[in-house]
Amino acid sequence: MTIPDFPPIASREHTTARRLQLDVEVTRSGLVESRHRVHAAVVDAHGQLLASAGDPTLRTWWRSCAKPFQVMALVRDGGLAPLGWSVDELALACASHGGEPEHVALAESMLHAIGLDESHLACGPHEPLAERGARMLRDAGGRWTRVHNNCSGKHTAMLARAQQLGVATTGYHVATHPVQEEGRRMVAAWAGLREETLAVGTDGCGVSVFALPLENMALAYARLAWSATAGDMAAARIVSAMTTRPFLVGGTERFDTVLMEACGGRVLCKIGAEGVHTLALVERGIGIAVKVEDGAARAQYPAVLAVLRALDVFDDVLPPSLQPWWDRPVRNTRQEQVGVIGLPMVATQATEPS
Questions:
Q1: Model confidence, pTM
Q2: Tally of CB atoms within 10 A around 175
Q3: Domain spanning 16-353 has what CATH number?
């Protein structure tokens, strides 16, 4: 399997990077009640650090943000067409979906295409992540299943890859299985790291998860965007699937979906658990990685938007659909607003040495 020829890595000897202030505060009646420390790296496809917050070299688990690269081998080797899979199936393979009826039906269809069913999935069942999905399941008197798991699309793609390689589907989720080993090699290559430097653990859904520095996460997404616009068909298909099918990547009122819809294909966005987020500015070949140090999801959304605002992705005013994620209200049990979650200032500080 071939890897694209990436742009050469630039020297950082005499470079500067813009410093951003992304820490998020929770205020109540004007008094700071909590503070979330946020780290970030903004990198181009040459590995140039353009901007950062906190420690851009922070090494942490990439969680679900690695999904585009875990499915990359299947796409590069032409594994979609024989199954009748196209843009929708590829989007779900990269998704942390909301477990809504549309997501579940597509996951079941994907399993059917490879002659398997829910029992072959190694991920466990959990309640749909989208409020709409959870409500519809409750109203129908249904129960959670493995296809409701937000990673069921990724797992189905891994089963398909095992079949494509001619190896056992049993144990496909174990770190020593060829599918997981291949995913590790792919992540390392796109992130510009030696494979042996990746820490490997077990993700929430049971497959391999990788730890690497934020700046290398950002580099992988910058390379994904650069490769897509440079004509690499696998990268282009993944970027197109995620940005043209944002509902399948997230779901109703899910942040990634709302953001990609608002940006009209200019931004690729992928959430991970424990406060990690990775994005690509598709036309500019720029990657972004954000990590909330304490893992609080409530802090990562305004932090991500602050980075995008600092990079002039938006005009002075955020699109209305994104405004609720910027200054998020804190409400009491009477549904009265008693505070706000947001940044104390717009993340636009002066340039400092990297």
A1: 0.95
A2: 14
A3: 3.40.710
